[in-house]
Amino acid sequence: MHLKILELEKNKVKMVLVRENHTFMNLLADEILKDPAVNVAKYLIEYQFSDPELLVTTDGSKDPITAIREACNRISRSCDELITQVSSV
Ranges for the DNA-directed RNA polymerase RBP11-like dimerisation domain (predicted)? Predict the structure, then answer.
């Protein structure tokens, strides 16, 4: 995955996630929104084959990049748990 940071402020980040689609972006935005410090987590895919743009804003108590990183770690742990459960079947 390749990222392009379009805008970075203390409580706001706007980035493009190259070659991602709705499946991952829905999961990521939903997981980011579970953080109480996050005000907005949404993405936009302007055209059918364009790269999605992610916008995350926080209340200032947490850096938006940290909120994204923590959400990705939670997603990864959930996937690891699923792999473990499926492997034991």
Answer: 14-84
